[in-house]
Amino acid sequence: VLVIDDETPIRSIVRAAIESDGGVVYEAATAAAGLALARDVRPALVVLDLGLPDCDGLEVCRRLREWSTAPILVLSARHADDEKARLLDAGADDYLTKPFSTVELQ
Q1: CB–CB of 80/74 below 8 Å?
Q2: Model confidence over 77-105: pLDDT tens digits?
């Protein structure tokens, strides 16, 4: 699982939840690092934040969809329905709003 989120505490929570189920987690704090890592490790799942410092998560989602079929789970504090719809239209598979429970994430 590749977690692309600029917040270290969020990455840690997601890592703990995924690893408790036996998963392997890769982390990136920026869009550029996340896209490069995605190409290198070819993750089975991408957990993507929208508020990245170097690029909007919507654009990251579009770029991933150009070459990857891995499911994309958007994890964001943004709650607007139109934003959720744009992400799903851009190729995201699901949308989980912050705050979230690890049970819901798993």
Answers
A1: no
A2: 877 888 888 888 999 999 998 888 888 88
Query: What amino acid is encoded at 7 in this protein?
Result: E
Mean pLDDT value across residues 21-29: 95
Give me the torsion for CA of 98, 60, 80, 101, rounded to 10°: -20
Q: Dihedral sign for Cα 29, 36, 94, 105, please.
A: negative
State which amino acid sits at residue 81.
D
72: nearest Cα among 96, 55, 104, 48 = 48
Q: Give CA angle at 103 (100, 106), nearest 5°.
A: 100
* pTM of this structure: 0.93
Q: Answer yes or no: are the C-beta atoms of 60 and 19 closer than 8 Å.
A: no
* Residue 17: HSE in the Cβ half-sphere, 13 Å Cα cutoff: 17
